[in-house]
């Protein structure tokens, strides 16, 4: 069995799979001693490890070391590419693009050939557009929800509030409401722009992934929820590499 890991800035997601089926999956944290939280029985089945990560070089090295030791299996990292199987990256320097974005787009490209947007609402939010020819048209990087809450709390001396996950966007009448409604209102505005862009660029689907995907759908994003988009892209690439 192969172990696949999508290691973001906050959490990591993993799945244990062979060519066509997923045996188990879960989430973990790079901070934990056992970053995967996998049982010994599952760990015993791992013969190779494939990782997509956007973590710092220090955390990446640490992860590689602990996973190698834990699984006694070779670890390979997969990065952004210029092109693959008809999907073409718009970046001139593809080594600068977060691997999660490329793997997410590739996961989407496998099943959606009519042009799509990928919205990954994680620690940071990314939006990427791919037309029906497989051409990546570019994208956007924005702060994520927790990041924005944290910066308001840290950088504005008189803003105290309890974060809520509410979806109300009407004008707030207390600090807490103004902050919470403000973030929902901002997300709603982003959603409107993505919808407008998708229409303008003739992209027929919006695929949503990341920890805050359901929140965006709750705010009216007409998107398809694909929680494992990055891992699907990574699995496909790993399989293609293995078959030569
Ligand atoms: N159990 C959870 N733990 C942490 N964050 C969560 C959880 N459930 C939902 N979230 C939300 O998910 C967001 C983080 O998303 P995700 O877990 O996809 O991040 P990530 O993959 O580490 O991020 P990135 O790839 O952007 O570095 C947070 O803003 C938070 O609001
Ligand atoms: C934007 C994030 C943090 C989203 O996870 C990640 O894709 C990343 O670190 N990207 C590097 C910069 C870039 O994609 O251009
Ligand atoms: K992610």
Automatic annotation (TrEMBL):
<feature type="binding site">
    <location>
        <position position="91"/>
    </location>
    <ligand>
        <name>substrate</name>
    </ligand>
</feature>
<feature type="binding site">
    <location>
        <begin position="6"/>
        <end position="13"/>
    </location>
    <ligand>
        <name>ATP</name>
    </ligand>
</feature>
<dbReference type="InterPro" id="IPR004619">
    <property type="entry name" value="Type_III_PanK"/>
</dbReference>
<dbReference type="InterPro" id="IPR043129">
    <property type="entry name" value="ATPase_NBD"/>
</dbReference>
<feature type="binding site">
    <location>
        <begin position="98"/>
        <end position="101"/>
    </location>
    <ligand>
        <name>substrate</name>
    </ligand>
</feature>
<dbReference type="GO" id="GO:0046872">
    <property type="term" value="F:metal ion binding"/>
</dbReference>
<keyword id="KW-0418">Kinase</keyword>
<keyword id="KW-0808">Transferase</keyword>
<keyword id="KW-0067">ATP-binding</keyword>
<keyword id="KW-0547">Nucleotide-binding</keyword>
<feature type="active site" description="Proton acceptor">
    <location>
        <position position="100"/>
    </location>
</feature>
<comment type="similarity">
    <text>Belongs to the type III pantothenate kinase family.</text>
</comment>
<comment type="pathway">
    <text>Cofactor biosynthesis; coenzyme A biosynthesis; CoA from (R)-pantothenate: step 1/5.</text>
</comment>
<keyword id="KW-0173">Coenzyme A biosynthesis</keyword>
<dbReference type="GO" id="GO:0015937">
    <property type="term" value="P:coenzyme A biosynthetic process"/>
</dbReference>
<feature type="binding site">
    <location>
        <position position="120"/>
    </location>
    <ligand>
        <name>K(+)</name>
    </ligand>
</feature>
<keyword id="KW-0630">Potassium</keyword>
<feature type="binding site">
    <location>
        <position position="123"/>
    </location>
    <ligand>
        <name>ATP</name>
    </ligand>
</feature>
<comment type="function">
    <text>Catalyzes the phosphorylation of pantothenate (Pan), the first step in CoA biosynthesis.</text>
</comment>
<dbReference type="Pfam" id="PF03309">
    <property type="entry name" value="Pan_kinase"/>
</dbReference>
<dbReference type="GO" id="GO:0005524">
    <property type="term" value="F:ATP binding"/>
</dbReference>
<comment type="subunit">
    <text>Homodimer.</text>
</comment>
<feature type="binding site">
    <location>
        <position position="175"/>
    </location>
    <ligand>
        <name>substrate</name>
    </ligand>
</feature>
<dbReference type="GO" id="GO:0005737">
    <property type="term" value="C:cytoplasm"/>
</dbReference>
<protein>
    <recommendedName>
        <fullName>Type III pantothenate kinase</fullName>
        <ecNumber>2.7.1.33</ecNumber>
    </recommendedName>
</protein>
<keyword id="KW-0479">Metal-binding</keyword>
<dbReference type="GO" id="GO:0004594">
    <property type="term" value="F:pantothenate kinase activity"/>
</dbReference>
<keyword id="KW-0963">Cytoplasm</keyword>
């Amino acid at each position: 069995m192969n172990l696949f890991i999508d290691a973001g800035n906050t959490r990591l997601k993993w799945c244990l799979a062979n060519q066509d089926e997923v045996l188990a999956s879960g989430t973990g944290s790079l901070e934990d001693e056992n970053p995967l939280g996998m049982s010994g029985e599952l760990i015993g089945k791992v013969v190779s490890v494939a990782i997509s990560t956007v973590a710092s070089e220090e955390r990446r090295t640490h992860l590689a070391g602990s996973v190698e030791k834990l699984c006694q299996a070779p670890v390979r990292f997969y990065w952004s590419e210029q092109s693959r199987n008809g999907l073409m990256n718009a970046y001139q320097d593809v080594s600068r693009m977060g691997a999660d974005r490329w793997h997410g787009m590739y996961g989407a490209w496998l099943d959606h050939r009519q042009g799509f947007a990928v919205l990954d609402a994680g620690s940071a939010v990314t939006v990427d557009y791919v037309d029906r020819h497989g051409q990546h048209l570019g994208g956007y990087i924005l702060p994520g929800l927790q990041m924005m809450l944290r910066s308001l709390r840290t950088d504005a001396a008189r803003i105290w509030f309890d974060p809520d996950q509410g979806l109300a966007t009407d004008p707030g009448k207390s600090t807490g409401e103004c902050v919470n409604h403000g973030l929902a209102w901002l997300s709603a505005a982003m959603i409107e722009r993505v919808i407008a862009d998708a229409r303008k660029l003739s992209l027929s689907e919006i695929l949503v992934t990341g920890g805050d995907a359901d929140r965006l759908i709750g705010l009216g994003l007409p998107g398809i929820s694909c929680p494992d988009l990055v891992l699907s892209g990574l699995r496909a690439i790993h399989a293609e590499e293995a078959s030569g």
